[in-house]
Amino acid sequence: MARTGDGSARGSVWLAARTRRGGRGGQPSGLDRERITAAGVRLLDAEGMAGFSMRRLAAELNVTAMSLYWYVDTKDDLLELALDAAYGELVLPDPEDDGADWREQLRALADEYRALLVRHAWLSPLAGRYLNIGPNSQAFSRVVQRVVRRAGLPAHGVTGAISAVFQFVYGHGTVEAHFRARTADTGLTADEYHRQAVSLVEQDPGTAEMFRESRELMAARGGDTVDEMMDRDFRFALDLLIAGIEAMVARG
Questions:
Q1: Which of 17, 125, 247, 250 is the most buried (most CB within 10 A)?
Q2: Burial level of 110, CB count in 10 A (0-12/13-18/19+)?
């Protein structure tokens, strides 16, 4: 949960019992909260949190910064709206489909969440900053809960299983997003960047020995490209977590 300027806990734009702004004289025509939010997502994708400001967003929309405050009260409100808009991109399985395997549905949810975190590198810090109770975030959480409940865990173990899977995905997706942003800044492809990094590590006396010790494990992992290596690690780790859920169900 974010904090306000006086240090108190901040609530949520979704809990604010106020009428959506607009409908009064003087507001810019053609502007609404949905359009502002969509523009906010695009700006965050292009510039990240460091380059995001209400003034910059207003320039993208060709309006004044004050015009935005007809529709949102604060920058935090807009960031929270952008966060939930991103969650709206997730393709969710039907948790009520009795013919579906919960394992495959859980893998699909993990894949979707990982891709979302990589696609929007700004999402992971915001997900830890706000309550995440917007409609799209709630829809995602509801489906995750229902899918994991179908595994047959006792009720007291469901939230722990969800944490194990999706905190792993959160961490993996966040690191992957940072890696891709770093390679983009260099102008290199991910594979070119990886080859250069490996070469530097091998040449440095302080890290060469550590790298030699892990070379066998890296070779055993397989994969000719960075994408393949990341995918194989992600799939294996996710399979371990699903196997752990199955083991806990069998334990009763």
A1: 125
A2: buried
Helix-helix angle 155-186:135-149, to 10 degrees: 130
Sequence letter at residue 107: R
- Of 59, 56, 53, 55, whose CA–CA distance to 79 is shortest? 53
CB 92 within 8 A of CB 24: no
**Residue 107, both tokens:** 């893998």
The strand ranges marked E within the chain are none
Task: Say which residue the tokens 């604060």 belong to.
Answer: 74
Q: Is the CB of residue 120 less than 8 Å from the CB of residue 45?
A: yes
Find out whether 53 and 76 touch, Cβ atoms under 8 Å.
no
**Spatial separation of the C-alpha atoms in residues 1 and 200, rounded to whole Å:** 41
CB 193 within 8 A of CB 187: no
Alpha-helical runs (H) found in 12-74 = 33-47, 54-61, 65-68
pLDDT digits (tens, 9 = 90+) for 68-81: 999 999 999 999 99
Note the Cα 243 to chain centre separation in Å: 24
- pLDDT tens track for 97-141: 989 999 999 999 999 999 999 999 999 999 989 999 999 999 999
**Cα 27 to Cα 63, 140, 158, 162, 245, distances in angstroms:** 10, 34, 47, 44, 53
Q: Report if pTM > 0.85.
A: yes
- The pLDDT score that the predictor gives to residue 23 is 43
